[in-house]
Design a protein that fits this description.
single chain; alpha/beta; seven-stranded mixed sheet; about 40% helix; globular
C-alpha cells in the first residue's frame, strides 16, 4: 500500500485518472477492493505504463469496439499468443479507453501466475481473475465483461513457426455462454505473435521452475505493431443435447476469430 501511495501522485496523469474514474466499478468495498481483488488506484498506476505501451510501443489499432456493449454480461473471446499475457492487457485497455461505453473487462489468467510472488496479487488488483469456471460464472451473474483465451497455454506458449494457427479451444467458455445467456464477442489479435517469438520450449527448465513452458525468446517484448479486430456478438441458446454440438459451436467461434485474424494481417502494412 505504501508503494501505491508513493507511486500514484508521481506517475498517474489526469488523463489516466479520468479513464479509470469513468469505468463502472460498482463492487468496490470500503477497503478499496472488489470481491476479486481489483483496486482502482493500482489500476491507474498500471494503466499509466500500459497506455504508453499501447500508444507508443505497440502502436495498437483497435477496430470494431462498438461491438462491445457498454453494460451487461459479455465474453470477449480471442486468440492467445506472445508468451506473456500482453494480448489480454491490450484488449482490456482498448475497451477501457474507448470513450463512450467504456468498461473494464476482467481477464481470466492462468493458474500458475498466483504462484509467482507478488505477480498474482498485482494481476488481481488490475482486474485479472484465476481462470476458473466458478469465478467466471459469478462474474457473469454480476453482469461483468470477461476476456477469455480458450487456447490457454497451448496458444501463448506455442513456437513461432505455429504463429496465427489456432490451437485446440477448451469448451468451458461455450458452456458458460449458453448457461448464462451471454453473448460472445470474438476478437482477432495480430502482432502479439511477433512481440516475443519463441524458437523452442526449454521443457527441463520449465519443469524445474514449475512453469507451463519456458520459451527460448527475446528477454523483452519486441515493438511489433498490434491490431485488434472485435467482431459482432455471437449468441448461442442453451439447447444442445451433446458435447459434439458444443464442439460445433466452439468451431463457429474459432472460425470467426480466424476471419478477424486474417483481416488484421491484411490491414497490417509491416510487422514493426
Amino acid at each position: 500500500m505504501r508503494i501505491r501511495q508513493y507511486l500514484k501522485p508521481r506517475t498517474v496523469s489526469r488523463e489516466v485518472e479520468s479513464i479509470v474514474d469513468r469505468l463502472p466499478m460498482g463492487n468496490i468495498g470500503s477497503l478499496g477492493y472488489d470481491p476479486w481483488g481489483l483496486n482502482p488506484d493500482t489500476a491507474k498506476i498500471t494503466f499509466t505504463a500500459v497506455r504508453w505501451l499501447y500508444e507508443n510501443y505497440f502502436r495498437v489499432q483497435a477496430h470494431g469496439l462498438e461491438n462491445v456493449a457498454a453494460s451487461g454480461r459479455l465474453l470477449i473471446v480471442g486468440n492467445h499468443s506472445g508468451q506473456l499475457p500482453m494480448d489480454g492487457v491490450l484488449v482490456s485497455f482498448a475497451v477501457a479507453n474507448k470513450g463512450e461505453g467504456a468498461r473494464l473487462p476482467r481477464s481470466m489468467i492462468e493458474r500458475w501466475f498466483p504462484s509467482v510472488p507478488f505477480l498474482g496479487n498485482w494481476m488481481n488488483s488490475v482486474g485479472g481473475v484465476i481462470g476458473d469456471a466458478k469465478n467466471c460464472a459469478k462474474m457473469l451473474e454480476r453482469e461483468e465483461a470477461i476476456t477469455v483465451f480458450p487456447e490457454g497455454v497451448r496458444g501463448s506458449g506455442k513456437p513461432y513457426r505455429l504463429r496465427y494457427q489456432l490451437q485446440r479451444f477448451g469448451h468451458g467458455f461455450m458452456h458458460l455462454a449458453m448457461e448464462y445467456n451471454t453473448p460472445i464477442v470474438p476478437v482477432g489479435v495480430v502482432g502479439c505473435e511477433e512481440t516475443m517469438p519463441s524458437l523452442a520450449n526449454i521443457r527441463p527448465l520449465a519443469k524445474m521452475l514449475g512453469m507451463p513452458y519456458f520459451p527460448l525468446s527475446p528477454l523483452v517484448p519486441l515493438p511489433a505493431r498490434v491490431i485488434l479486430n472485435f467482431g459482432p456478438p455471437m449468441h448461442f441458446p442453451n439447447d444442445v443435447t451433446s458435447e459434439r454440438d458444443v464442439e460445433w459451436r466452439v468451431e463457429e467461434v474459432k472460425d470467426a476469430i480466424r476471419d478477424l485474424i486474417d483481416a488484421g494481417i491484411a490491414q497490417r502494412k509491416s510487422i514493426f
